[in-house]
Write a structure and sequence with these properties.
It is a single chain. The protein has six helices and no strands. The protein is mainly alpha-helical. The two termini are about 35 Å apart. The relative contact order is 0.20.
């Protein structure tokens, strides 16, 4: 449990009925949406506005591809497949990759805390360790994708 202990938060509230299956479902839905947003952002022409130069536009498209790839790979780790998550066009058109990266970092750290706390309060510790490794990998891959 020492691996999980680094994120354990005794103050954190765990949802009633939380299971391995509900955690996996949440992660698959979260990553499916990320893939969809990155894919849709890549297809928006001149997403950065009329004043963006060609280098900025190229860098944005590169980040879109990298985030889409990283999220798709992480989704596979959770046993998910890329599927339709609804219309994300507006979100994709407005995504700011710097803010997105910061937000994802916070969200992933919160997920690490949540899953570790769940495991240390009677959840499946072996699964939680695997889940935390996946979340740490995702964090690193997103940092690389958004550099």
């Amino acid at each position: 449990m020492s691996y999980l202990a680094q994120w354990y938060d005794p103050e954190m509230q765990i949802r009633d009925g939380e299971t391995k299956a509900t955690i996996e479902k949440f992660e698959r839905e979260r990553l499916s949406k990320m893939v969809a947003v990155a894919s849709a952002a890549q297809s928006v022409p001149r997403r950065l506005g009329a004043d963006a130069d060609s280098d900025e536009l190229a860098e944005d498209k590169k980040r879109c591809r990298r985030v889409q790839h990283a999220a798709a790979q992480c989704l596979k780790d959770w046993g998910g497949a890329v599927n339709n998550v609804g219309d994300v066009t507006r979100e994709a058109a407005q995504v700011d990759w710097a803010k997105f990266g910061e937000s994802q970092q916070v969200d992933l750290l919160n997920r690490l805390r949540y899953i570790s706390t769940w495991a240390m309060n009677g959840g499946d510790a072996a699964f939680a360790k695997t889940a935390c490794v996946r979340l740490n990998n995702e964090m690193r891959w997103l940092q690389y994708a958004l550099r």
